[in-house]
Amino acid sequence: QKEVEQDPGPLSVPEGAIVSLNCTYSNSAFQYFMWYRQYSRKGPELLMYTYSSGNKEDGRFTAQVDKSSKYISLFIRDSQPSDSATYLCAMVFSGSARQLTFGSGTQLTVLP
Amino acid sequence: SAVISQKPSRDICQRGTSLTIQCQVDSQVTMMFWYRQQPGQSLTLIATANQGSEATYESGFVIDKFPISRPNLTFSTLTVSNMSPEDSSIYLCSVVRAGSREKLFFGSGTQLSVL
Fold this sequence. Notes:
The structure holds two protein chains of two kinds.
Chain A: E1 4-6, E2 11-14, E3 19-25, E4 32-38, E5 45-50, E6 54-58, E7 61-66, E8 71-76, E9 85-92, E10 101-102, E11 106-111
Parallel strand pairs in A: 2-11
Antiparallel strand pairs in A: 1-3, 3-8, 4-5, 4-9, 6-7, 7-8, 9-10, 9-11
Chain B: E1 4-7, E2 10-13, E3 19-25, E4 31-37, E5 43-49, E6 56-57, E7 68-72, E8 75-80, E9 89-96, E10 105-106, E11 110-114
Parallel strand pairs in B: 2-11
Antiparallel strand pairs in B: 1-3, 3-8, 4-5, 4-9, 5-6, 7-8, 9-10, 9-11
């Protein structure tokens, strides 16, 4: 079993839809959770960062962490074609980015 | 976030040759890493680039195949040696800035195709 499992997709939604991207993990020692967005032929871009259970909102994006269920989600409201990208979840114990563990990514297409 | 310049952005190489990828950061960073992203797969850490000393390689990666240099705090190179088609991947430089131990910032990547 992988430490981090991510819904593989691909996911295709109409413009304006609410998108939910999800990851589960097995190691309860993970404390920091991130979402990266990767456009085609580009490097991953840090989108959201959180270290506690609950919700964190940034514009149209909401990151949700449920440590008791070992489950994290990224919600995108009012999705736009420019949101079309691959989204990667990532998580780490405290202290070292070297130990960052990534999900396999979910490819999202938002249709105009 | 740090500005991370990586080059080349892509290359097509012949089997048996080597390619050196450069990573330049606009400011001093505490840590630099090299990742590989194979088609349809997640990111795999190759090694930590240590300033002024040998890189620290992850399981499955060796110095002879992926020699790494980091002569100063803002520059590093990764060489993919004696390439085979299995080395076709995206190679990514990433950094951690001072005061941000968990947040990784990535370069734009090098798309490598080996024929």
